[in-house]
Design goal:
- It is a single chain.
- By secondary structure, the chain is mainly alpha-helical.
- It has two domains: 13-51; 65-121.
- It has helices spanning 13-24, 30-37, 41-51, 64-106, 110-121.
- Helix 1 (13-24) crosses helix 3 (41-51).
- The chain is rod-shaped.
Length: 122
């Protein structure tokens, strides 16, 4: 059989009802059903419309929980990065202050001395 040939799958009504019940209970997502059983998203949504407990004509936002989790995860990552950036900034300020105090104590500008060495080595 070539890769382009379609495999036609038939799922029993009981199977579909079970998956829709699990979906409505929040135990499984529509995407997980798609991936586990290799069915299209359209098929999964048709099962939910046909066998689900949602009144006809009512609009459902699918995968809302997973989107909330993704957003929460991204917000946590942003907070982590902001903390790291803040720490790096504090370290830079501290280092600059140490260089400034050392320059004053030693009587010559360490920044200029360091920069001239860097320029010569390039």
């Amino acid at each position: 059989m070539s890769q382009k040939e379609k495999i036609i799958k038939h799922f029993s009504e009981a199977f579909k009802r079970e998956k829709v019940t699990l979906f409505e209970e929040g135990k499984i997502t529509a995407i997980q059903i798609q991936r586990m059983y290799s069915v299209s998203s359209a098929a999964v949504y048709k099962w939910i419309a046909k066998y689900g407990n949602t009144p006809k004509g009512e609009r459902i936002v699918f995968e809302k929980a997973s989107e909330e989790l993704k957003t929460l995860s991204l917000m946590q990552k942003v907070a982590e990065l902001e903390r790291a950036l803040g720490q790096a900034h504090l370290q830079l300020v501290y280092s600059n202050e140490v260089i400034s105090v050392a320059s004053t104590e030693l009587g010559y500008d360490l920044k200029k001395k360091h920069n001239s060495k860097s320029s010569k080595s390039c």
